[in-house]
Amino acid sequence: MGVGRPETDRPVRLSPAARPGPAPRRRWWPRPVDALVVAGYLALAVLLTTDQWRRPERLFHQAGDQMLFEWMLARAARAVTDGENPLHSAALNAPHGVNLMANTSVLGLGVPLTPVTVAFGSQAAFLVAVALSLAGTATAWYALLARRLVRSRAAAAVGGLVCGFAPGMVAQAGAHLHMAAQFLVPVILALVFRPATDRVRRDGVLLGLAVTYQVFLGEEVLVFLALATGVLAGAYALADRDTARRLAPVVARRLGLGALVAGVLLAYPLWVQFLGPGHYTGMPFHTRGYRLDLVSFTATARQTVGGDGHRAGLLSPNPTEQNSFFGPFLPLLALLVAVRLWRRPLVRALAACGLLFALLSLGATVVVGRHDTGLPGPYRLLAGVPLLDLVVPARFALVCVPVLGVLLALAVDRVPGGPGRGRALWAGAVAVALLPLVPTPIRTVPVPPVPAVVTGGDWRAYVPPGRTLVPVPPVTGAAVSPAMFWSARAGLAFDAPGGYFIGPRSAADPTARWGAPDRPTSVLLRRAAEAGQVPPVGDVERRQAVEDLRHWRAAALVQADSSPGDPVRATVDALVGPGRDVPGGHLWDVRALLGG
What we know:
This protein is of the alpha+beta class. The chain has two domains: 29-58 and 121-437, no CATH class; 452-474 and 519-589, no CATH class. It is 49% helix and 8% strand. The protein contains 23 helices and twelve strands. The protein has helices at 32-48, 50-54, 63-82, 107-110, 114-120, 122-149, 153-165, 167-173, 177-180, 185-192, 200-215, 219-239, 241-275, 309-315, 330-340, 345-360, 400-413, 421-434, 452-455, 482-489, 520-531, 539-551, 567-576; strands spanning 58-60, 88-89, 98-99, 365-368, 371-376, 444-446, 468-471, 502-504, 512-514, 554-560, 580-582, 585-589. Helix 3 packs across helix 20 and helix 15 crosses helix 18. The longest helix has 35 residues, at 241-275. Residues 1-25 have low confidence and may be disordered.
């Protein structure tokens, strides 16, 4: 796949007389243009986050997910600065804590971003993580393309742009850092499929280290990568048996050594994830319901210049899973490129891989234009496989992103040199395919501010060590969790009950559920908030409130933006007695009620 290699990707066979010595090794060194490309990627990534930089009182459209990842970044920083266990935390879901290995803790981002989190807070760290994930993914693909697959830096730049900023990547970046941080994917692929047969031990060790790090970025991406690597290798082997036969022993040794290194390093973290405190089985939602509409592959995503938010919403399970929205022209161009370059084994392997994962993203039955045809999809073959049955089908389409990026890079690399109709046609086709997909800044929504009593630290006068601060109403299982949001913005300075995470139903039942199990008092206060009126409160409810507050180890309850006529505030008054106004909200000191 280097410069000067024939279209078939087969190595040039020289006669003995034509072999004067070892072939010179192709070297790749950064050039000034590389810095410009990377700077362009970074500028685009920052541009996509500008709305929140300008208006920090807002969050990205999936506000609950941003709250989750802000908390995870703050927790990683706390683990670094205070030497706490990075795999489990008692700062949330009091008194049981949260198994962070069993959740998307993104330690691979949170640990290196600790200086940003400590200096500027969790929101700044989250925005920096979003920008670095998008730009880093594009940069890593650019480097792999420029070094291994294409001769033109322009071709590599276009390919990297698609791999890092495709609509699906931007949609994921606004909510799911673990899906957007894919900058190690090309690194792992480069190590697995390195064409040289030397330095097997070095490559195997580096592969194990890269896989280990990817686990702490996002295990779901690693699952997709493992599946795609297997499909790609198998398809390439069928297309070029000679090369596959020559490289198979070397690749197998790399994989074996990499698996050994990663297995040793991940043994304890994976034990914590699957058997440690707070582990769970299954998922708290039906993954099969998150599938894509076949029509979505030629539609435009909401966050693109040609996007239609209403139509995109009809064709995707939610705004974050718009992974297949490649527009009307990019899939067609990719098809033309595949036909034009079909003689290359790499192209045939990419086409097979992209087609298979596109079909898997359609779910168990194929939906076309919102109509369930009843036709079975290949996802049915994976639905019963352990671990794979936990994967959201819609995310299989993310594998198509680098497939299209590489195919497009190969197409641009084939642009005829010099002036002429051929060059103009190629450039025009690429422009037409990509222009509708140009991303727009990630949409933001307003959120209630964190009470000043929390951000200012006045809560410390009411919450001694070992006790918790309880946001009102206490949310235990919902996506938007004030406890998690307030805790993140306060740098995890206090412990809180509830939170937005996946955990077991109970100590005796490991079945997965969102958040902590509801307590009667949290249900009562939520009913007051939803109905807009004070529910009946008697001695039974008061005794239950005391029991629940003791369970949470509560010292104080805080309600943001409280008013005297608020039914939730009136309900808490009826349960524990009147509170007091504090900056940004209302506070109930329950230490005396609970006996300490």
